[in-house]
Amino acid sequence: MELKITTLEGSAAGSVNLSDAIFGLEPRADIIQRCVNWQLAKRQLTWFRNQMKDWPWASAEEAEKVLEGQISVLSPTNLQA
To answer: Does the residue 81 lie in any domain?
Structure first.
């Protein structure tokens, strides 16, 4: 597959040969959908994080300690008492 190369001004800058084994394939809609969904989710996360600049974020260690405390409260030995 031969493609023409153009500059930003629109003038011809040559051509390039691309392998049909790679660039001649039909795009898979399911993979494109996954990529678009990932990009949208990442954009939402970044927007949310920027809205919460003053929010006190916990470190991974602090969050793990809190979760361990909650799990120990809900353990079967504590629920039977």
So the answer is: no
